[in-house]
Amino acid sequence: MADLDNKDQAEIDPADMEDVEDVEEEETVENSKSKARQLTEQLMQNPQILAALQGGLEGLNGSPSGYIESLPKVVKRRINALKNLQVKCAHIEAKFYEEVHELERKYAALYQPLFDKRSDIVKAAYEPTDEECEWKVDDEEELTVSKKDEMKEKAKLEEEKKDEEKEDPKGIPEFWLTVFKNVDLLSDMLQDHDEPILKHLQDIKVKFSDPGQPMSFTLEFLFEANDFFTNTLLTKTYQMRSEPDEGDPFSFDGPEIMSCTGCTIDWTKGKNVTLKTIKKKQKHKGRGTVRTVTKTVPNDSFFNFFTPPEVPENAELDEDSEAVLAADFEIGHFIRERIIPRAVLYFTGEAIEDDDDDYDEEGEEADDEEGEEEADEENDPDYDPKV
Length: 387
Prior knowledge:
By secondary structure, the chain is an alpha+beta fold. The chain contains 14 helices and six strands.
């Protein structure tokens, strides 16, 4: 038997022994990686460690190397000349954005007839022709015959159902309300009591300032007659500036919104959703009697969008006001740049899918890493799911 064992050992290929060693080494490396990831996750969940890391990163970010200070005076003098050139570049860039604004104003006039027709279709002022309603799909988007038949049958049933209904919907009901509800940035502003009002919203337009006037744009919200307020038009104007700050010219990065102005909403009595009535009990200090008083306080609503906080000319805003204005500017810019030009795609959800495409690859990578981590944990003999 001893001779047989020696013979078996002699027949083992040295290359096979190397493969075994490689596999064991890979397993050891993977186990080490898994343990390192677990330790990293535990450390990153510690607020003190996170704060220390953040402080360290802030110290590393953009920290001067000391090289500039070590340069001879004559070289520093030339650097000042370069910085003066950079200031002139900033002023030229400001003029560039002014011309961009003029181009936007010019092309807005070309877009507007198409947007007006869109509005007419939405509010049933115009019924598009069969030719206008025909949507031609690309070859890659064509459906299979069975799918087409299925959709035709479904469409037929829907048409029959519509024929049975007494009321035929006009235009595209709740078009703008659906757009708002589909966009996270806007839906976060909506309250339940806002929705019945926004069902009456018929169009949103943008108007740019006239030539020679300070740079600005105005958002116009057009409403049909309703029971909530007498206005048919609500506006929000954003004043912009495209010039470098004299105190910090290098911070210039295009036009910035300086302030915004809303409008007065003429609410019907008892319909103002931006206010709410609360009852509060008060106790008399001397007599000890208790009385109930009614107070009117602000209420969360999308329509607070039309009464932004005022920006004082020579005073600094507190943090809360700055946060509100920053969010307001972001919303106004988004409505102007994305919602108005592509409203139908936000209504159908296609624009939202396009916006999400930018994150697909990153998300897939994260999912893959998570899957790998789960597999590593399962293979780790020291892994405890309770920890």
